[in-house]
Write a structure and sequence with these properties.
The complex is a heterodimer. By secondary structure, chain A is an alpha+beta fold. Chain A is 24% helix and 36% strand. Chain A is globular and about 30 Å long. Classes of the chains: A alpha+beta, B mainly beta.
């Protein structure tokens, strides 16, 4: 349900590798500026294939190559350093 | 007290205001013009709470230039489910110079803002000091409303009203309505000056409105089309 409501992800690189989806609820997302900053930060991280920031639901959805080791702590740190607060992280699979 | 109404200061700019501190590794180039000065600032965010930059400012009436190293601190950020607020300390230290002499110069000021996707508010003050040249304390307040809430990537529109006050100047109060448009990937070209108000009504003064523009720095596209505008300053000045 969570992922079904998420718009199409922006894919960093073309590819059809299996991915894991991670939904991160974030406080403070109020503008495109926020979304753009988070995209830039996560696309620098190896293994991140797609980033979607939904300003309506305040959920950042990450697509990472299956098997990528990206912990909740790292995600939280990246988002916190970008200036926002993580409230919840949910992991799914495509 | 003078009361100015600028009917329309139409600007194509980026988000509702400039975040002096963005995120580690983020560059921003801001070009700011107001009734009294033109300024450009390039800053780099070193940590989530600290940005360092350089700024050049030119005060047209006094024909004084200032070059400064700038330090912007995010003192506090409140991230709420549907809104965000920030408290900044913005400072600069450098030199002011005219035709015949160079003097030390400095400024500092606080900025506090709050915004959600519909409304925006900001208050900022600034104390500027340059020996024998320019000295002023200014206050700026701004409110804004988005007539519609766009999705990520849409064209966003903000209707804003800005008030500037400086008790040390004859024309001490001004109001400036603004329309701001931005779109996620809109790339503002690096134009160094920008005419402000297109129309104005004032009481015995044809002072133009302030305008601001933020330009992404091409060395890092982190803010392409997203660097925000709004390092607002009062247009009031007082000779030292």
């Amino acid at each position: 349900m969570l992922f079904a409501a998420t718009p199409a992800l922006a894919h960093h690189e073309a590819g059809h590798a299996a991915v894991d989806k991670i939904a991160v609820s974030v406080n403070g997302l109020v503008c495109d500026f926020c979304a753009r900053a988070l995209e830039k930060v996560f696309y620098k991280r190896d293994g991140v294939e797609g980033v979607d920031v939904n300003l309506d639901t305040k959920i950042v959805t990450l697509e990472v190559v299956k098997g990528t080791d990206i912990s909740d702590e790292e995600i939280t740190e990246l988002i916190t350093d970008s200036g926002y607060n993580v409230t919840k992280i949910s992991r799914g699979e495509e | 007290m003078r009361f100015f109404i600028f009917l329309l200061a139409l600007s194509v700019s980026l988000p509702a205001y400039a975040r002096p501190v963005s995120y580690p590794g983020g560059w921003m180039l801001m070009v700011m013009n107001d009734a009294d000065s033109n300024a450009a600032q390039l800053n780099y965010t070193l940590t989530p709470r600290f940005a360092l930059g350089i700024q050049h400012e030119y005060f047209r009436d006094s024909e004084i230039h200032m070059d400064a190293v700038t330090v912007d601190n995010l003192l506090k950020r409140w991230n709420l489910p549907d809104s965000q607020a920030n408290l900044y300390l913005k400072s600069g230290l450098g030199a002011a110079y005219g035709d015949d002499e160079t003097n030390p110069a400095a400024y500092t000021g606080m900025e506090i803002d709050w915004e959600d996707r519909r409304f925006f508010t900001l208050y900022e003050n600034r104390f500027f000091w340059a020996e024998e040249d320019e000295r002023f304390i200014s206050h700026t307040a701004r409110i804004g409303v988005a007539p519609y809430v766009g999705d990520y990537g849409d064209l966003h529109t903000w209707l804003m009203l800005q008030a500037d006050y400086d008790a040390g100047k004859d024309d001490d109060f001004s109001l400036t309505p603004m329309v701001r448009l931005f779109k996620d990937d809109y790339l503002v070209r690096p134009v160094t000056t920008w005419t402000a108000a297109c129309c104005s009504i004032s009481h015995g003064n044809s002072k133009g409105g302030r305008n601001e523009k933020t330009v992404p720095d091409n060395r890092n596209d982190a803010f392409r089309g997203n660097a925000s505008a709004g390092a607002s300053r009062s247009g009031a000045r007082r000779r030292g």
